[in-house]
Protein backbone atom coordinates (compact mmCIF):
# COMPACT_ATOMS: atom_id res chain seq x y z
CA UNK A 1 0.00 0.00 0.00
CA UNK A 2 1.15 3.53 -0.77
CA UNK A 3 -0.73 6.77 -0.12
CA UNK A 4 -0.20 10.16 -1.75
CA UNK A 5 -2.05 13.06 -0.10
CA UNK A 6 -3.45 16.01 -2.14
CA UNK A 7 -3.04 14.58 -5.63
CA UNK A 8 -3.68 17.26 -8.25
CA UNK A 9 -6.46 16.45 -10.70
CA UNK A 10 -8.08 18.15 -13.68
CA UNK A 11 -10.90 20.61 -12.88
CA UNK A 12 -13.71 18.06 -12.75
CA UNK A 13 -15.92 16.06 -10.40
CA UNK A 14 -14.64 12.49 -10.06
CA UNK A 15 -17.47 9.97 -10.07
CA UNK A 16 -16.80 6.24 -10.51
CA UNK A 17 -15.10 3.41 -12.35
CA UNK A 18 -16.91 1.57 -15.12
CA UNK A 19 -18.13 -1.91 -14.07
CA UNK A 20 -15.20 -3.56 -15.90
CA UNK A 21 -12.65 -1.22 -14.26
CA UNK A 22 -11.19 -0.05 -17.57
CA UNK A 23 -12.56 3.50 -17.44
CA UNK A 24 -13.03 6.23 -14.87
CA UNK A 25 -15.96 8.62 -15.23
CA UNK A 26 -15.94 12.29 -14.23
CA UNK A 27 -18.19 15.29 -14.83
CA UNK A 28 -16.67 18.48 -16.23
CA UNK A 29 -16.25 21.45 -13.90
CA UNK A 30 -19.18 23.25 -15.57
CA UNK A 31 -21.27 20.06 -15.14
CA UNK A 32 -22.26 19.84 -18.82
CA UNK A 33 -19.98 17.03 -20.04
CA UNK A 34 -19.13 13.46 -19.12
CA UNK A 35 -15.37 12.87 -19.18
CA UNK A 36 -14.18 9.33 -19.80
CA UNK A 37 -10.66 8.42 -18.69
CA UNK A 38 -8.80 5.23 -19.56
CA UNK A 39 -7.39 3.57 -16.43
CA UNK A 40 -3.75 2.57 -17.00
CA UNK A 41 -3.65 0.08 -14.12
CA UNK A 42 -2.33 -0.11 -10.58
CA UNK A 43 1.29 -0.37 -11.66
CA UNK A 44 1.25 2.91 -13.62
CA UNK A 45 3.45 4.70 -11.05
CA UNK A 46 5.83 1.87 -10.20
CA UNK A 47 8.88 3.55 -11.73
CA UNK A 48 8.26 6.72 -9.69
CA UNK A 49 7.73 4.81 -6.48
CA UNK A 50 10.90 2.75 -6.99
CA UNK A 51 12.99 5.88 -6.49
CA UNK A 52 10.81 7.40 -3.78
CA UNK A 53 12.45 7.37 -0.34
CA UNK A 54 9.12 7.37 1.49
CA UNK A 55 8.01 3.80 2.11
CA UNK A 56 4.22 4.06 2.37
CA UNK A 57 3.03 7.66 2.56
CA UNK A 58 3.58 11.07 0.95
CA UNK A 59 2.00 13.76 3.08
CA UNK A 60 1.85 17.52 2.75
CA UNK A 61 5.52 18.31 3.38
CA UNK A 62 6.83 20.51 0.55
CA UNK A 63 9.59 18.40 -0.96
CA UNK A 64 10.33 18.82 -4.70
CA UNK A 65 10.03 15.12 -5.62
CA UNK A 66 6.88 14.66 -3.54
CA UNK A 67 5.36 17.77 -5.17
CA UNK A 68 6.20 16.26 -8.56
CA UNK A 69 4.47 12.99 -7.59
CA UNK A 70 1.35 14.88 -6.45
CA UNK A 71 1.26 16.75 -9.79
CA UNK A 72 1.92 13.61 -11.89
CA UNK A 73 -0.09 10.89 -10.16
CA UNK A 74 -3.51 11.47 -11.76
CA UNK A 75 -2.13 11.54 -15.30
CA UNK A 76 0.08 8.54 -14.57
CA UNK A 77 -3.05 6.49 -13.81
CA UNK A 78 -5.62 8.07 -16.14
CA UNK A 79 -5.69 9.32 -19.73
CA UNK A 80 -8.62 11.40 -21.05
CA UNK A 81 -10.24 9.40 -23.84
CA UNK A 82 -13.46 11.36 -24.48
CA UNK A 83 -15.27 14.45 -23.26
CA UNK A 84 -18.92 14.24 -24.28
CA UNK A 85 -21.19 17.27 -23.91
CA UNK A 86 -24.52 15.85 -22.77
CA UNK A 87 -26.38 18.66 -20.99
CA UNK A 88 -28.46 20.98 -23.19
CA UNK A 89 -27.91 24.72 -22.87
CA UNK A 90 -29.08 25.95 -19.49
CA UNK A 91 -28.91 22.54 -17.82
CA UNK A 92 -26.33 20.99 -15.52
CA UNK A 93 -25.59 17.36 -14.78
CA UNK A 94 -26.68 16.07 -11.41
CA UNK A 95 -23.41 14.88 -9.86
CA UNK A 96 -25.21 12.26 -7.77
CA UNK A 97 -27.10 10.70 -10.68
CA UNK A 98 -25.12 8.31 -12.87
CA UNK A 99 -25.87 4.66 -13.55
CA UNK A 100 -24.27 2.13 -15.87
CA UNK A 101 -26.45 -0.15 -17.96
CA UNK A 102 -26.33 -3.82 -16.99
CA UNK A 103 -23.87 -4.66 -19.79
CA UNK A 104 -21.60 -1.74 -18.74
CA UNK A 105 -21.55 -0.21 -22.23
CA UNK A 106 -23.52 2.94 -21.45
CA UNK A 107 -23.89 5.39 -18.62
CA UNK A 108 -27.16 7.13 -17.83
CA UNK A 109 -26.90 10.62 -16.37
CA UNK A 110 -29.48 13.11 -15.19
CA UNK A 111 -29.50 16.85 -15.72
CA UNK A 112 -31.59 19.67 -14.35
CA UNK A 113 -32.42 23.24 -15.28
CA UNK A 114 -33.36 26.13 -13.04
CA UNK A 115 -37.00 27.06 -13.60
CA UNK A 116 -38.05 30.60 -12.79
CA UNK A 117 -41.34 31.42 -11.03
CA UNK A 118 -42.97 33.13 -14.03
What does this structure look like?
- The protein has 118 residues and is an alpha+beta fold.
- It has one domain.
- Helices cover 16% and strands 41% of the residues.
- The protein is built from 2 helices and 8 strands; from the N terminus they run ββββαβαβββ.
- A 4-stranded antiparallel sheet has the order 2-3-4-6. It has a two-stranded parallel ribbon with strand order 1-5.
- Strand 7 and strand 8 (107-113) form a beta hairpin.
- It starts with a strand and ends in a 5-residue tail after the last strand.
- The mean pLDDT is 90.
- InterPro entries: De-etiolated_protein_1_Det1.
- GO terms for molecular function: ubiquitin protein ligase binding; ubiquitin-like ligase-substrate adaptor activity.
Topology of this protein?
Layout: E1 3-4, E2 12-17, E3 23-28, E4 33-39, H1 46-50, E5 57-58, H2 64-77, E6 78-85, E7 91-100, E8 107-113
GO cellular component, one term: cullin-RING ubiquitin ligase complex
GO molecular function: ubiquitin protein ligase binding; ubiquitin-like ligase-substrate adaptor activity
InterPro entries: De-etiolated_protein_1_Det1 (IPR019138)
